[in-house]
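WARN no homologs supplied; continuing
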Amino acid sequence: MDRDLACGLIGTAIALAYLNAAADIPTSALGDTVGAAGVPHLLGYALAAVSVAFVAQRAIALARGKAAEARTGGVFDDPVPAFASAAGTVLICAAFVFLLEPVGYLPAVAFLIFALCVYQRVAINARLALIATGGAFALWLLFAVLLSVRMPAGIWAEMI
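OK structure emitted
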């Protein structure tokens, strides 16, 4: 069996097991509108969707006889650059975690999007700044407004 197809199937199985475990999280009358199981369910469904899409894409590539062409190669062919890439991503995410409380949600998420894009060699320009700012605002709308999750305001709350 193709390694990528097997990974997609394993991801789907993990997502189903995760969703099954998340279904056992009790609901509380004291919980918010999202509830304790809201985020675990969201993560489980996201993993399931990505895994199923990966399986479908890989199965189509194999059926067309383009298995070798479907492999992207690149940084993950060699473990040393793959580790360096993952380590850099972890460092950027760690900086986000440390910035979140003092600077607030919107600037920290904008930094995260911007820094990860730059780390992946996306050109620094006005478009990238707009994507980082718009992405942070969209995520803030989703979590703070739609789901009513309290987000750290940071130093900006005192200035406004």
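Helices lie at 3-22, 38-63, 67-70, 79-103, 105-119, 126-146, 156-159.
OK
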